TrEMBL record:
Domain Transcription regulator PadR N-terminal: 14-82
Listed PANTHER family: TRANSCRIPTIONAL REGULATOR YQJI
The protein's name: Transcriptional regulator, PadR-like family
Gene3D superfamilies registered for this protein in UniProt: Winged helix-like DNA-binding domain superfamily/Winged helix DNA-binding domain
Transmembrane domains' residue ranges: none
Organism in which the protein naturally occurs: Cellulomonas fimi (strain ATCC 484 / DSM 20113 / JCM 1341 / CCUG 24087 / LMG 16345 / NBRC 15513 / NCIMB 8980 / NCTC 7547 / NRS-133)
């Protein structure tokens, strides 16, 4: 996937984000992530060196507050923004296009994941049916055995899915990385899975 910002563009965009008021580095990362709909989240290693350079250039000032540092525009920073308003407008247009492209790529990935999930569900159902038939062959007088085996297999899969995904979500949440896109993707995949499975139960 192509880089989000060309040379010097992130520097300019950080200045624009500070125009509304002082912000912590984490707030700037979150604002950037929100601007890109969660499809891009810059790392601390990307943001803080640029903030330090802006501070060296006299365009922002850093105020240390306990464990956090707040960054604010200086008069020189505001003058830089005013002088480059045309560049900023062009950058905003480019970001809008990038967001559209990335959103489409994510939708394609989600559609692919949903197709893969349906295939996995079909394969698992087929395996469960085969297992049930094998068990039922040993006890022909028990008409509910095959159904019971399939239900147990299905519930075990649901349990594994829930436990693994919950652990992944909690790890991501500890790092502040659970995006709205994650929730929307999960909702789309689960809704599709629920619909597909319910069709087999009719």
């Amino acid at each position: 996937m192509a880089p989000v910002f060309a040379h010097g563009q992130l520097r300019l965009y950080l200045l624009s984000l500070l125009e509304s008021g002082p912000k912590h580095g984490y707030e700037l990362m979150t604002a950037l992530s929100d601007r890109f709909g969660g499809t891009y989240r810059p790392s601390a290693g990307t943001i803080y060196p640029r903030l330090a350079r802006l501070e060296e250039e006299g365009l922002v000032v850093r105020v240390d507050e306990e464990r956090k540092s707040t960054y604010a525009l200086t008069d020189a920073g505001r003058a830089e923004l005013a002088a480059r308003s045309a560049d900023l407008a062009e950058l905003e247009e480019g970001i809008a296009e990038t967001v559209r492209d990335r959103a489409e790529a994510v939708r394609d990935d989600v559609r692919g994941s949903m197709r893969g999930l349906r295939a996995d569900l079909a394969a698992a159902a087929q395996q469960a049916r085969a297992t049930a038939v094998q068990h039922a062959a040993g006890k022909p007088d028990d008409p509910h055995l095959a159904s019971h085996v399939r239900r147990a297999d299905a519930e075990a899969m649901i349990g594994r899915f829930r436990d693994e995904l919950r652990a992944d979500l909690r790890r991501a949440d500890a790092q502040g990385k659970v995006e709205q896109l994650t929730v929307e993707t999960l909702r789309a995949v689960l809704d599709s899975a629920l619909s597909a499975v319910r069709q087999t139960l009719r």
